[in-house]
């Protein structure tokens, strides 16, 4: 019999409450509770420190109007990127504006580059034909900015997932109030998990000056993986934890750490073992991410078929072949991977490639290749679940301890 604390723990893990009316629904809850008995591995933390220094980039009138909304909440500086006169002397390039008693430094110059992350953005501008550090040009104590709010027609950073602390809102002004609220709160010290670990000794990126595998670089939507000769480097401050880099790595040089693959596989093993003991038909595993995926499922979870076993991971792109094949070996009848409009395109591409490979392996073993598939949230409703799995009972499955 599950206790109230068990039920609360399951709801917290899933990020929503499942119904518990039928025998199948009770078995599902019990299976998830059993999986949570295992201890999770710890991972290192990545720290950020911000003092509230915000740079607004864009046309001066627009930048000043946005600055009015932040006055009194953060320290402000403006890079006016339109109407500047590069031939003017430096004394006319740097000036001040006052808004409600707060002095704001303004520089008129062309933006050349924005690099870094929350608490450490280095901004380079073109002044009189030369590249200069903007913070230095403003005579700031720090040579960096904590946050960059980009109002330009074309964003300075065009990555699918820009670094934490960078906001480009020119094309999405309706989102401005939410962005300004978030910026006002980015003052202090922040931590996040270190999502991936890298072992250069088994990396296949290069050897003897010859470039080899670039899968992790190609698939990272945040540009957090770069080449440094025969090895790669992961910028943990720019990493968003999408996990596709580790999923496509052919050697295991990049491994996901939050949660680790072993933790995910061990949890699924325990859940499927408990499900098997209940005698219920083998379930279909529904993998979903902690944020948008959980938000979506919260609206439809009351209508889950009893044979659906939801399983939350940090990001669906982090699972990959090892997790999927292990789930089948442990007794899953099918696997569906929930995606949505916020899933980066590079992650979708990596998922599609990995799914196709697993289908080939399954079909080579005379199994149904269609038992694994991506499940776009926009293509179904809770009244028509496209699981496409059989009603077999898992009996002959791998246990592995």
Which descriptors would you attach to this protein?
FAD/NAD(P)-binding domain; 3 domains; single chain; 6-stranded mixed sheet; 4-stranded parallel sheet; alpha/beta; 11 helices; 401 residues; Alpha-Beta Plaits; 21 strands
| Distance N to C terminus | 25 Å
Percentage of β-strand residues: 25-35%
Let me know the number of strands. 21
Overall pLDDT score? 90
So how many helices?
11
Name the poorly predicted regions.
Answer: 86-92, 388-396
Helix content: 25-40%
Structural class estimated from helices and strands: alpha/beta
| Assembly form of the protein | single chain
Largest beta sheet: strand ordering: 4-5-3-2-9-10
Describe the structure.
This protein has 401 residues and is of the alpha/beta class. It folds into three domains: 4-41 and 259-376, no CATH class; 48-191, 3-Layer(bba) Sandwich (FAD/NAD(P)-binding domain); 194-255, Alpha-Beta Plaits (2-Layer Sandwich), CATH 3.30.70. The protein is built from eleven helices and 21 strands. It has helices at residues 4-14, 23-35, 60-70, 134-137, 176-184, 215-219, 244-248, 261-278, 292-298, 320-330, 345-364; strands at residues 45-50, 53-58, 75-80, 94-99, 102-108, 110-115, 122-127, 130-133, 147-150, 166-168, 188-193, 196-198, 206-207, 210-211, 225-228, 231-234, 254-256, 284-289, 308-313, 334-339, 372-376. The strands form seven sheets. It has a six-stranded mixed beta sheet with strand order 4-5-3-2-9-10, with helices on one face. Strands 19-18-20-21 form a four-stranded parallel beta sheet, sandwiched between helices. A three-stranded antiparallel beta sheet has the order 6-7-8. Strand 6 (110-115) and strand 7 (122-127) form a beta hairpin. It is globular and about 75 Å long. The two termini are 25 Å apart. Residues 86-92 and 388-396 have low confidence and may be disordered.
């Amino acid at each position: 019999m599950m206790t109230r604390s068990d039920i609360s723990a399951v709801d917290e893990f899933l990020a929503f409450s499942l119904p518990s009316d039928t025998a199948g629904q009770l078995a599902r809850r019990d299976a998830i509770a059993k999986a949570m008995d295992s201890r999770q591995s710890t991972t290192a933390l990545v720290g950020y420190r911000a003092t509230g220094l915000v740079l607004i980039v864009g046309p001066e009138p627009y930048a000043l109007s946005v600055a009015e909304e932040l006055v009194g909440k953060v320290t402000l500086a403006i890079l006016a990127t339109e109407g500047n006169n590069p031939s003017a002397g430096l004394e006319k390039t740097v000036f001040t504006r006052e808004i409600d008693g707060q002095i704001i430094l303004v520089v008129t110059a062309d933006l050349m580059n924005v690099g870094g992350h929350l608490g450490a953005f280095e901004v380079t501008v073109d002044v009189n034909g030369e590249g200069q550090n903007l913070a230095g040009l403003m005579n700031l104590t720090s040579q960096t900015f904590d946050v960059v709010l980009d109002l330009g027609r074309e964003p300075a950073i065009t990555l699918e997932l820009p670094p934490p602390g960078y906001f480009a809102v020119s094309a999405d002004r309706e989102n401005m109030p939410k962005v300004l609220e978030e910026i006002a709160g980015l003052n202090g010290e922040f931590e996040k998990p270190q999502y991936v670990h890298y072992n250069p000794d088994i990396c296949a990126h290069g050897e003897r000056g010859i470039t080899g595998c670039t899968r992790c670089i190609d698939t990272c939507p945040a540009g957090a993986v770069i080449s440094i000769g025969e090895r790669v480097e992961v910028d943990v401050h720019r990493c968003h934890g999408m996990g596709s880099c580790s999923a496509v790595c052919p050697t295991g040089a990049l491994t996901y750490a939050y949660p680790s693959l072993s933790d995910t596989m061990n949890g699924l093993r325990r859940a499927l073992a408990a499900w098997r003991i209940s005698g219920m038909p083998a379930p279909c595993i529904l993998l979903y991410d902690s944020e948008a995926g959980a938000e979506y499922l919260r609206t439809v979870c009351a209508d889950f078929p009893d044979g659906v076993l939801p399983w939350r991971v940090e990001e669906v792109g982090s699972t990959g072949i090892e997790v999927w094949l292990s789930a089948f070996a442990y007794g899953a009848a099918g696997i569906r991977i929930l995606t949505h409009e916020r899933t980066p395109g590079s992650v979708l591409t990596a998922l599609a490639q990995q799914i196709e490979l697993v289908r080939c392996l399954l079909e080579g073993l005379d199994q149904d290749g269609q038992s694994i598939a991506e499940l776009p949230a926009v293509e179904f409703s809770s009244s028509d679940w496209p699981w496409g799995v059989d009603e077999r009972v898992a009996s002959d499955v791998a246990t592995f301890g």
